[in-house]
């Protein structure tokens, strides 16, 4: 039996950079005389194991501005998903030291949305409503931004046909679905400018996962329960391989493989640490 691990599985550039930023701050504070507390605005990434390890190192997760008002002044690290413009300003006004670990690809979207909305264009974000990255992007628009993730959402859009629309995307959105929604918008008589802001790492990861799943008898997708990009990998793989498992760690894997299984594929979301991926891969290789 062959076990095939996706080359793109695991931390993407933005996630790796954000996690490393937190550990750098931990080391700096160990050497500092003042020893300021360290906070992250929301979980630094959508992975419970990573967040738990950071908590053991004294890093506290702050969920909102109200909570931040009631803590000791310290270093607050903006997670890879980014935040809205108003929240950014409020954190600095409170007197905290703000360390911005927003993924550069997400930051690029903030800049696009801010610039295009200033030029009076309507902003349409293709993404998942409520996702922290999408909420952050929305908050850089100087007018109300529209969020769509389906054809039904497009039908509900209340934008005059003579308005120019700038379309951007959540970096981890399903690439094929993005293209489909853009076509629907173009065919709806809207005057659109499209900026494909799905990051290359996401597109590559989704393409590779689909290719492996199409060949696999069993597919394993590893990632956090709240990880949007991992859920999308699971959706993509499930369409190609009926026996697809979504797990967070090896403890979640309850696998019984018949003798007929010839290929087990493994991929992982952008917030999944390498040690968890290796653990799952080694287990499957050893036991089947």
Overall description:
This protein has 11 helices and 12 strands. Helix 10 (228-240) links the parallel strand 10 (218-222) and strand 11. The chain is α/β, with parallel strands linked by helices and 288 residues long.
Sheet-strand content, in percent, reads 15-25%
Structural class computed from helices and strand pairing: alpha/beta
Separation of the first and last Cα atoms: 7 Å
Secondary structure tally, helices: 11
Give, in order, the helices and strands. Answer: EHEHEHEHEHEHEHEHEHEHEEH
The portion of residues assigned to helices is 40-55%
What is the CA-based Rg, rounded?
21 Å
What is the β-strand count?
Answer: 12
General form = flat
Largest sheet: 4 strands, parallel
| Average of pLDDT | 95
**Strand order within the widest beta sheet:** 1-12-10-11
Low-confidence runs (pLDDT<50, min 5 residues)?
none
Descriptors:
12 strands; 4-stranded parallel sheet; single chain; 288 residues; 43% helix; 11 helices; alpha/beta
Write the layout of secondary structure elements.
Blueprint (H helix, E strand, L loop, with lengths): L1 E4 L7 H19 L6 E4 L6 H9 L2 E4 L2 H5 L5 E4 L6 H9 L3 E4 L3 H15 L3 E5 L5 H7 L7 E3 L2 H5 L8 E6 L5 H12 L4 E4 L5 H16 L2 E5 L5 H13 L3 E4 L15 E6 L5 H14 L1
Parallel strand pairs: 1-12, 2-3, 2-4, 4-5, 6-7, 6-8, 8-9, 10-11, 10-12
Helix pairs in contact: 5-6, 9-10
């Amino acid at each position: 039996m062959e076990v095939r691990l996706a080359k793109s599985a695991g931390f993407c550039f933005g996630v790796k950079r954000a996690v490393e930023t937190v550990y750098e701050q931990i080391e700096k504070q160990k050497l500092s005389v003042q020893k300021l507390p360290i906070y992250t605005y929301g979980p630094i990434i959508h992975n419970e194991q990573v967040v738990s390890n950071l908590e053991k190192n004294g890093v506290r997760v702050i969920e909102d501005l109200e909570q931040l008002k009631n803590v000791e002044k310290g270093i607050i690290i903006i997670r890879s998903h980014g935040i809205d413009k108003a929240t950014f300003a409020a954190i600095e006004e409170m007197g905290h030291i703000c360390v911005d670990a927003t993924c550069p690809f997400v930051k690029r979207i903030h800049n696009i949305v801010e610039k295009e909305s200033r030029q009076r264009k309507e902003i349409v974000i293709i993404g998942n409503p409520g996702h922290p990255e999408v909420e952050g992007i929305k908050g850089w628009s100087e007018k109300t931004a529209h969020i769509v993730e389906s054809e039904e959402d497009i039908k509900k859009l209340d934008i005059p046909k003579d308005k120019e629309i700038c379309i951007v995307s959540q970096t981890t959105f399903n690439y094929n679905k993005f293209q489909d929604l853009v076509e629907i918008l173009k065919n709806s008589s809207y005057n659109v400018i499209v900026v494909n802001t799905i990051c290359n790492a996401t597109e590559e990861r989704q393409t590779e996962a689909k290719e492996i799943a199409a060949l696999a008898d069993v597919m394993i997708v590893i990632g956090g329960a709240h990880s949007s990009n991992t859920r999308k990998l699971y959706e993509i793989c499930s369409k190609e391989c009926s026996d697809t498992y979504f797990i967070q760690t090896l403890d979640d894997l309850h696998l019984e493989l018949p003798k007929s299984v010839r290929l087990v594929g493994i991929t992982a979301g952008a917030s999944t640490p390498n040690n968890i991926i290796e653990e799952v891969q080694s287990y499957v290789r050893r036991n089947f």
